[in-house]
Amino acid sequence: MADSADKKDQYQQQYLAMDPGERSQFDSWLQAFKQTTGLGLSPEQLAKRNVQRAFERDEKDCKRCEKWRNELMKTSPVVRFMAEKLKYSGYEATAEKMPCVKCSEMRSGGFTPDGTIQLCYNKLADRWHLETTMAHEMIHAYDQQNFNIDWYNLEHHACAEIRAASLSGDCSWFQEFMRAKVGFFKHHQVCVKRRAVLSLLANPSCKSRKHAEAAVNKVFDSCFTDTRPFDEIY
User: Fold this and answer.
1) Would you give the distance in Å from CA 85 to the centre of its chain?
2) Per annotation, catalytic residue among 22, 105, 131, 137
3) What is the gyration radius of the CA atoms in the chain, in angstroms?
4) Widest distance between CA atoms in the chain
């Protein structure tokens, strides 16, 4: 304990011996060190630091999402194709209708009946993930514009999810490889069914997984073969 006190006094004397310029530089370095590591901060300071860091991370992720979204609207073949088809259907796929938002659920995007396409900036793995998400939700927008969809009707919802999962690239070999779900025999269909069921489980009208699976199986053949507005599966 004595040695520790002696060293503390020694450090204090060295600090006081610094000229004002050196002391200012040291204080700045020490504060940066504390903010970076969290060491030496009081519980209150640490809590404030964590809140600030979370805010900065959210701001960074949101700006990245917006940058990718704007780029994809100009360069992505599937996003541009869907934007064109949506325009013919009376829906303008603008950046304002596709906001980047923070999501608590395990999803990368969402579509609301008022026509808003949500892009979950805190759930995106990379630019290609966002491209697939945009295509998926734009297919939902297309279906709402062209078909009389009741999103609380489980069979309607199942059909929309089957089409979106199949046509957006959501069930591409690469996407499934990244999920460690690679298969060979009719794996695209297996993936589409699995993804559709997962989406239906969030529907208030869905009573159970069996209920979701029954709705998907009932409409699967007719909805899977309906590739509008594409000529074939993307």
Assistant:
1) 24
2) 137
3) 26
4) 82
